[in-house]
Write a structure and sequence with these properties.
Length: 311
């Protein structure tokens, strides 16, 4: 099998990893043409609606090639993962996309084996659902990220509308957590001055030394501790909230927390949110979406995703 990574859309400089398997090879965009013997493509990320347009012709070529394409992204479960450390790195791998709604992962009704192995290796504790807390935590995402592709309108407008709707259901404090890798992309004065009666607290203003692209660091864990509920459009941090037993509200079906979260802010009107989502099968299925380097090198992850194409 010949799987091509086009260098311009496979971002090795972002700590992603092209598997060390004979099926893969890297090529420059200038080398790509119709006559090549290519079975599939692999890329990091997807074409964005909020990013620079210079790479769009490459993404369009791949999408229109009538060849399957694999998409590598950050892991679904971030706790215990460090993409900069090969021994602790995990990567999400899907066909056509990395998002819950558009990606294909061949993971329906998965067994528990991978989850149990990942849980042990990464030290992930699944805590009972809780129904107490002092504030509503909103996880802000990189405003130009492809995880916001489904969002209509500006991200600032979405944030403001969410804060105002929360204020209609509860008077408790609202904590807006900046994405730690993109602090400068946010207008902190705008966030602090959204016109609601609730107290607004902006968190994550300082980038801590332990933050890397894989996780939010210890201060994120501190923000989670006393949150009554966690809200985001589709942030990976929602998965951590779910594992911590904190009720999550995912506002878009691209979020991997979609099956085990609420989708409306109305739930915040309840003084005590009594979650009854069963997480077991969700954990098993999600575990079959992420792979370490040794597993990627074996060829198994890409072969199981391309099985419908006769490979």
């Amino acid at each position: 099998m010949n799987i091509v990574a086009i260098r311009e859309i496979f971002k090795l400089q972002s700590s992603f990893y092209l598997p060390n398997h004979p099926d893969y090879k890297m090529m420059q965009w200038s080398q790509i043409h119709d006559g090549l013997d290519i079975d599939a493509y692999i890329q990091t990320n997807i074409q964005g609606t909020r990013k620079a347009l210079d790479l769009n012709p490459i993404y369009t070529w791949v999408r229109n090639s009538k060849k399957p394409y694999l998409v590598m992204e950050q892991a679904v479960f971030r706790k215990g993962v460090d993409i900069k450390d090969p021994s602790k790195a995990y990567y999400r791998l899907g066909r056509n996309s990395y998002t819950y709604d558009k990606g294909m992962f061949n993971n329906q009704n998965s067994p528990s084996d991978r989850w149990l192995a990942i849980q042990e290796k990464c030290g992930i504790e699944i805590k009972p659902w809780k129904n107490t807390g002092d504030y509503v935590l909103i996880l802000l995402q990189n405003p130009s990220d492809t995880s916001l592709n489904n969002l209509k309108g500006s991200y600032d407008a979405w944030i403001e509308s969410v804060v105002k709707e929360i204020s209609r259901h509860t008077q408790e404090d609202i904590v807006l957590r900046l994405h730690p890798c993109f602090i400068k992309k946010f207008d902190v004065n705008f966030l602090r001055n959204i016109n609601v009666p609730n107290k607004i607290i902006v968190s994550g203003l300082v980038k801590h030394d332990d933050v890397n692209p894989s996780h939010g660091g210890k201060d994120f864990e501190e923000d989670l501790k006393n949150a009554r509920a966690v809200v985001a459009f589709s942030s990976n941090g929602l998965q951590e909230a779910v594992c911590e037993g904190i009720p999550a509200i995912s506002m878009d079906k691209s979020s991997f927390s979609w099956p085990v979260s609420y989708h409306s802010l109305d739930i915040l009107a309840e003084k005590n949110i009594n979650c009854e989502f069963s997480r077991d099968q969700w954990l098993y299925d999600c575990a079959y979406c992420q792979w370490n380097r040794e597993e990627l090198d074996s060829g198994y992850p890409h072969q199981r995703l391309l099985v419908n194409y006769g490979y």
